[in-house]
Specification:
The chain has 390 residues and is an alpha/beta fold. It has one domain: TIM Barrel. The protein contains 16 helices and eight strands. It has an eight-stranded parallel beta sheet with strand order 1-8-7-6-5-4-3-2. The two termini are 29 Å apart. The structure holds flavin-adenine dinucleotide (FAD). The site of flavin-adenine dinucleotide (FAD) has 26 residues, from strand 4, helix 12 and strand 7. The site of flavin-adenine dinucleotide has 26 residues, from strand 4, helix 12 and strand 7.
């Protein structure tokens, strides 16, 4: 390979895990690899939450500790330090989503502002991030996108949500901390895109400060990207995108099937892969005037991105390029990329255990449903255990 990138080195991949934590990770991936256990576990968890049963004692020492940095920003210090020792940066991800109360949105806004302050003090935190439904009601966004008229109260709630987005981005710009905005279901995303486009146009004049997220499993995203790039040139700002494949595949298809419209996601995995790699190539080909975060656990996509970086003689640690993975997943990619000199970040989710549950369920389901992901993690962990035994 031109970029000379290999992910097989498990000594590098697991160098910050002692034998005990490696074995724990092995059992965890074995468990989440079972579709039956994950389905049953997710159902039981939802039920326990509904009945307000305590679940922390079960989740905290297992999935929570594996996939999350802690319950508070300060709890994440250990993880920030552990990753930072190997040149891996942290993106603190307050995992609130699907809230519907103004007070909850305000609380989330303050948390995100705190993560920006933390990033401003800590060089191992290069970005802040937020999820739109942590700051705005899902049903409100859905209603706006569907074109239904809003009541006065809803208009007011929408204006407040917009000003929360604005307030966070202004704070990020003030503290020189770029902000990434996650993407969610397609039936609220147009509204979010509209707001983020305005924010990019305001804050990305001199440097990439606001990143939108493109889910490349959507078949309209390549043309959206091309349009965005043209518009940003006309309006003279940096287009900046985090590229992901997308986490809501089954939900998107289910809704489209139920409501009788064409599914917004590609019909095959190969088409999603192709679109993802094309989007990476588009942004890398003009990287002096754009920015990209290649957010994936896919080895082939990382190798392809590294090849383009190599072919165009772009510095591996170019400030407009980063790779990102989720904490607890694909360490073999993060650690090997970082060891090869690329900018690498881990999303480090944090929050009270109960708040983080939807995120944890998604991770467990993803590890079960995504063909090959768990078996790949297990294969590498087993390989490293074997290597250490000699
Ligand atoms: C740092 C980071 C940030 C993220 N932020 C977001 C975010 O803001 N929004 C979001 O939605 N997700 C986000 N994700 C999650 C991301 O979308 C999932 O990790 C992703 O779904 C897995 O894709 P992959 O590239 O890692 O892996 P892969 O394992 O290579 O790909 C699996 C993905 O391919 C797609 N796929 C699989 N089968 C098919 C099929 N039959 N047809 C079409 N497509 C298919 C799906 O998207 C599936 O999840 C983020 C991930 C990371 C690492």
């Amino acid at each position: 390979m031109k970029g000379m990138l290999v992910f097989e080195n498990t000594e590098i991949a697991f160098k910050d895990r002692d034998n005990k934590s490696l074995k724990k990770a092995y059992w965890l991936f074995k468990m989440v690899g079972s579709p039956f256990l994950v389905k049953a576990g997710a159902l039981l968890l939802k039920l326990a939450l509904f009945l307000r049963l305590p679940v922390e004692w079960l989740l905290k020492p297992t999935v929570f500790n594996h996939f999350c940095g802690g319950e508070t920003i300060d709890d994440c210090d250990e993880t920030i330090h552990r990753l930072g020792k190997y040149g891996i940066m942290t993106i603190l991800d307050y995992s609130a989503e699907g809230k519907e109360e103004e007070a909850e949105f305000e609380y989330t806004r303050r948390q995100i502002m705190d993560t920006i302050d933390k990033a401003a003090r800590e060089k191992r935190i290069p970005y802040a991030v937020f999820k739109p439904t942590g700051l705005a009601g899902f049903y409100l966004l859905e209603k706006v996108q569907s074109g239904q008229p809003l009541s006065d109260r809803e208009e007011e709630a929408l204006a407040k949500a917009r000003s929360r987005f604005e307030c966070i981005c202004a704070h990020g710009a003030d503290r020189n901390v770029p902000v990434m905005i996650d993407s969610e279901e397609s039936w609220i995303q147009d509204v979010v895109d509209g707001v983020v486009e305005d924010l990019m146009a305001s804050y990305n004049k001199d440097r990439p400060m606001i990143y939108n997220t493109l889910q490349m499993y959507r078949h309209d995203r390549l043309s959206y990207l091309e349009r965005s790039v043209v518009q940003s040139r006309q309006k003279r700002f940096f287009p900046a995108f985090k590229l992901v494949r997308g986490a809501y595949l089954e939900k998107e298809r289910r809704r489209a099937g139920k409501m009788g419209y064409q599914s917004p996601v590609y019909s095959t995995r190969a088409l999603t892969d192709k679109a993802f790699d094309e989007a990476v190539a588009i942004l890398l080909s003009q990287i002096e005037d754009a920015a990209v975060c290649v957010a994936t656990h896919n080895e082939i996509s990382c190798v392809k991105a590294a090849d383009i970086i190599h072919t165009h003689s772009i510095p591996k640690n170019h400030p407009h390029i980063s790779f990102a993975q989720l904490l607890g997943m694909s360490d073999h990619i993060s650690y090997n990329l970082s060891s090869a000199g690329y900018n690498v970040c881990k999303y480090v989710p944090y929050g009270p255990v109960k708040t983080v549950i939807p995120y944890l369920i998604r991770r467990a389901e993803e590890n079960t449903s995504v063909a090959g992901q768990t078996s790949r993690e297990l294969f590498l962990i087993k390989k490293e255990i074997g290597r250490r035994r000699g």
